[in-house]
Amino acid sequence: MKDYILYAKGVDSISVADAIIFPDSGKVVLNPNAIISTLENSTIIADNIGRYHKFTSATIDIFLRILIRDLDFIHLLMAKIICSKCF
User: Fold this and answer.
1) Tell me: the pLDDT tens digits for 20-69?
2) Domain limits for position 15
């Protein structure tokens, strides 16, 4: 993953810890070193079981550390969400 950029479209949601992130465009770019491009105008549901907290119109940066075992299976080792604009 150090040399490639992955472009995904039709992404309904991204699960990170106990939160669910809904990209507004459905497009996500995974850059080298597991850096996801900033998500604009997205929605976050925190506490994905009770869905107690909802943030809309959010600008989100997700920082990941991943381990890839094969092309079909990705282990998420650590993630941090930074929401710079949340309403």
Assistant:
1) 889 999 999 988 877 888 888 999 888 767 777 888 888 888 876 655 55
2) 6-85
Q: Give the end-to-end CA distance of the chain in Å, rounded to a whole number.
A: 34
**What φ, ψ does residue 33 adopt, rounded to 5°?**
65, 30
Query: Rounded CA gap, 27 and 11, in Å?
Result: 6
**73, part of any domain:** yes
- For 52, which DSSP code? -
- Number of folded domains that form the chain: 1
State how far the Cα of 15 lies from the Cα of 48, in Å rounded to an integer: 9
For residue 33, is it within any domain? Answer: yes
